[in-house]
Specification:
Elements: E1 4-8, E2 11-16, H1 19-43, H2 51-59, H3 63-70, H4 75-82, H5 86-94, H6 101-111
Antiparallel strand pairs: 1-2
Length: 119
Amino acid sequence: MSVQFIENKGVPEYAVIPVDQYQSLLDKAEAYDDVVAFDKVVACAEETIPAHMVSRLVKGDNKIKVWREYRQITQAQLAERAGVAQAYIGQIETGQRDGTVKVLVVIAEALGISLDDLV
């Protein structure tokens, strides 16, 4: 690498390099940042979710329905895992009923998420 140093009072203050070498350094720095970001996601204990799911949650879709569909389970399967009636799950998903805290806790557990993800 060819570098030209510019000094101020005998102390190197700037380094001048050819543009192609500068671009190469930028590319390597960006690749390194990508690796660091990836490693942080992998090390994170929290589950990451795809953008389409985030969009549905932000839009206001029923959170139980969104998570259930993401987990690829039916209302009947969720009801069985949570120990409640399938009709109850359906009513909560359509907004006809509010689930009690106790029911929401078991639904969250059945979906493998925290209660905070549902409320």
